[in-house]
Amino acid sequence: MSRLFGRTMRDVPARATTPSHRLLLRAAMIHQLGAGIYSYMPLAWRSLAKIEAIVAEEMDRVDGQRIGMPVVHPADLWRKSGRWDSIGREMARFHDRDGHDMLLAVTHEEVVTDLVAYYVTSYRDLPRMVYQIQTKFRDEPRSRGGLIRVREFVMKDAYSFHPSYQDLDVYYERMVEAYVRTFRRCGLEPLVVEADVGMMGGSASHEFMLVTDAGEDTLLICDACGYAANSDVASTTVDPPPPEEPTPKQEVATPGRTTIEGVADYLGVPTTRTLKAVFYVAGEELVFVAIRGDLGVNEQKLAIALQSSEIRPASDQELGEAGIVPGYASPIGVKNAKIVVDRSVPAAPNLVAGANRAGFHLTGVNYGRDFRADIEADIALARGGDPCPTCGAPLRETRGIEMGHTFKLGTRYSETMDATFLDSEGEQQPVIMASYGIGIGRLLASAIEHFHDDDGILFPASISPYDVHIVELGEAEQVREAASQLHVALEAAGVEVLRDDRSESAGVKFKDADLIGIPLRVTVSPRSLKNGGVELKRRLSSESNMLPLDSAVGEIVDLRQRLMDDLDPERPQWSHTGSSSE
RNA sequence: CGGGGCGUGGCGCAGUCCGGAUAGCGCGCGUGCUUUGGGAGCACGAGGUCCCGGGUUCAAAUCCCGGCGCCCCGACCA
Questions:
Q1: Are residues A427 and A519 in the same domain?
Q2: Strand B nucleotides below 7 A of a protein CB?
Q3: Which of A82, A434, A491, A538 has the most CB atoms lying inside 10 A of its own CB?
Q4: Which nucleotide is closest to the Cα of A153 by its C1'?
Q5: How far is the C-alpha of A237 from the C-alpha of A312, rounded, in Å?
Q6: Which of the nucleotides lies closest to A16 (Cα–C1')?
């Protein structure tokens, strides 16, 4: 350790706020170069290499074949898929010396589809899965939390190709299992949630979340039936109000009542009997969103319903130009706007809606009879406490870090990029695809986020930079000699050793050992030698035990193996404890 | 993209409001001696374009203008 590149820190840079960020900096594992851009120092690099090895093993287990694809892509490929235009400023673009449009890869569907178009010609070439572990650059509007959200990052991305949807579905399940195994081998239990397909497109998507307060995604979970979804896409059961005979539409004066609560109070009806109007602009088009008064709009779902990537709330000026009266807006008789209704609206009879005239509302508004929408969709925002869409029990809200994400892409890329094969009938078919990603650095940060205490990191054995941390105290020759022999013997036994041979005080060495968080610590000192050997202590435990010198290697090898076995996903009892306080 | 904050030796900060002295403190770093079981003591020492550019002034870390960088909240986002 006297020759380790990097130095641990007592004080933390003030800008680091999340525990994993602080500890990664203090342990000299990462160094920031710019916003969301980091160098990996030796300790981090070793840990990342172990994570990569686990990920690669699990990919190989599900018949993956490792490849490498370029980081720099010509724009033409992305023009074919349409994403040159549909992806915004998170993709870095530049020109080569001849002025050709180029880009830094944000993901590799285009490149891999190009490979498939070339090499896959027959159903006999399917299914296949390829993966790589490689750098991506996404110019995020805001990086944060150390390695949790960065602009340049290492990702394992995998792509599978299938002759049929049935084949895709079967394989996708295998991949989900492989993902769960991967995270468990890193000591983390993932929560699999339904997710937004985002810029990838496709039909279904799942995220693998570490549940933690430091997470940046909001999740809705049903403890009763296991339903779990990212709040971007979560749905909720909206109990329809009791059926009623439609009453005639009638205009009533509601002076000064411009809010849902105000109108509901004034007219003595529950908010579930009102119609809320919300306005957005999608592209250039004004969108009139009608939803039951007690519900909120999920903008993510709305964007999906509109098939538009860019939506924003409409300004008052834009509303005025469209002849809409804020506070009294009505979907009845509205022109020059696309009308979207939440599915809660058709189910509710005799609603109170605006009259599109200041100071007046309409009662007895019924969908279908009085107005119709251009789009009818589930756009309601699910919140904690809302009923679960599958079983009705209350949903619980929590936060999570997205460690992995899988997408059923279908033919979205193969059709636009002409990746086809001949089926057994001799018919030309588009290849059916899926893609799967794991953020390697983010997984390291997630593990630290989950496994740390007030003193430092508590590395799971499987991803620790080293297996054993030897702390030698004092300058005595027999201490140095014993530590050196143990070091050599352990390495000969396949154990990775970090040896603290610095001329520092005991306190400094112990603090650093706790900070770095290698699971096993061996102390060699005059005192330990006098007591018959060396001291072995688990990072997780406050107790240590003496090992005679001649049996130390064997004991350490055994204990290391037990720690590894604890992380075996085949074991039902795998577990690790950690605290989330620092 | 909206809101807030910060830029002073490697790290954490003070000084800036109200211009003026050799730019200071703690940690870390180097050398020597004494220490060595939970961030040791003493002594000496090295290390600064006070983010950059321009302006005001006899005088700018400090005031003014412009820029750059970073962090946090939100929007956004695999």
A1: no
A2: 1, 10-13, 26-29, 35-40, 69-78
A3: A434
A4: B78
A5: 26
A6: B71
The CA distance from A211 to A402, in Å, is 9
Q: Which residue has the tokens 């340049």?
A: A152
User: pLDDT confidence of A580, banded at 50, 70, 90?
Assistant: very low
Closest alpha carbon to C1' of B74, residue: A142
Could you tell me the residue range of the domain that residue A330 belongs to? 250-377
Q: Is the pLDDT of residue A572 over 60?
A: no
Q: Which nucleotide C1' is nearest A473 CA?
A: B36
Q: What CATH number is associated with residue A47?
A: 3.30.930.10
Tokens describing residue A200: 């990838």
pLDDT digits (tens, 9 = 90+) for A389-431: 888 898 898 899 999 999 999 999 999 999 999 999 999 999 9
Q: Which of A5-14, A236-245, A502-511 has the lowest mean pLDDT?
A: A236-245
Residue A78: inside a domain: no
- The two tokens of residue A287 are 């969108």
Our count of domains for chain A comes to 3
CA within 13 Å, CB half, A153: 28
For A52, other C-beta atoms within 10 Å of its C-beta total 17
Task: Give, in Å, how far the C1' of B12 lies from the CA of A33.
Answer: 20
- A563's enclosing H/E stretch is helix A549-566
In whole angstroms, B21 C1' to A444 CA is 52
Quote ipTM for the complex.
0.93
A196: the nucleotide nearest its CA (via C1') is B78
Q: How far apart are CA A157 and CA A437, in angstroms?
A: 4
Name the domain boundary from A328, A344, A377: A377
Q: Which of A100-114, A343-357, A432-446, A503-517 has the lowest mean pLDDT?
A: A343-357
Read off the tokens for A389. 């869409």
Judged by DSSP in three states, A9 sits in: coil
> Pick from A3, A2, A24, A5: which is nearest to A15 by CA?
A24
Residue A133's φ and ψ, nearest 5 degrees, are: -125, 115
Residue A411 pLDDT: 95
Smallest CA–C1' distance to B40, residue: A505
Q: What percent of chain A has pLDDT over 70?
A: 95
CB A133 within 8 A of CB A440: yes
Q: What percent of chain A has pLDDT over 90?
A: 59
Which residue, chain included where needed, has tokens 């809010």?
A259
Contact A91, A139 (CB under 8 A): yes
**Tokens 């709330």 sit at which residue?**
A313
